[in-house]
Task: structure prediction
Amino acid sequence: MGFLNFLNKTYHRNLLEKFLLKYKHLVKGKILDIGSKNRRYDHLFEGEITAIDVLPRPEFDVIKGDLINLSLQSNSFDSILCVEVFEYLEPGNFKTGFKEIHKVLRRNGKAIITLPFYYTDHLDNIRVTYSYLLNYLTNLTLYKIKMFKFGNKYTSLYDMIRYSKIRKKSNKSRNYLYNFILLFLYIAIRMFSLESKQDLFYSGIFIILTKL
Result:
């Protein structure tokens, strides 16, 4: 992937999509995409996809649906995709979201869920740590759980600089400087295999749940 193409998204988003690509084989059959917005990940999966969002978009065949009140038939989906939706819930609805997914998922069905952590505020309501979420899901006793952190201090630094570049709408010379710094970071991260390093500055959490 070229640097200019990579620059079109945050490092966080690029890493998230790498995980989706790696585990796309788990999302199949009758699929529910929760918080779909514009069905950006349809091309990754083979199956019958129902896309829902609190803001329906008929032009993308996205119908109205709410994570905390899934008015869909119980045990009706083989797979569920829920990319960066949980952070918009009110804290009191967090458990409800996981229970609603459990309700509509078939036994042994897979749910892929992602949440941001060390990442820019995008008018969301709640951030949770990896350790909190692992304990929380374990105590729910509804799923078999597999979880990964993605991102680290290097990729987070990249995204902070990229954010500054976009927000400040700099003049040409400063814009060149930002691009030079981002290119340097991009090369360093790739050259020294820093992408997969683990530390406390992970930008997101990638979860694979299997309904028990």
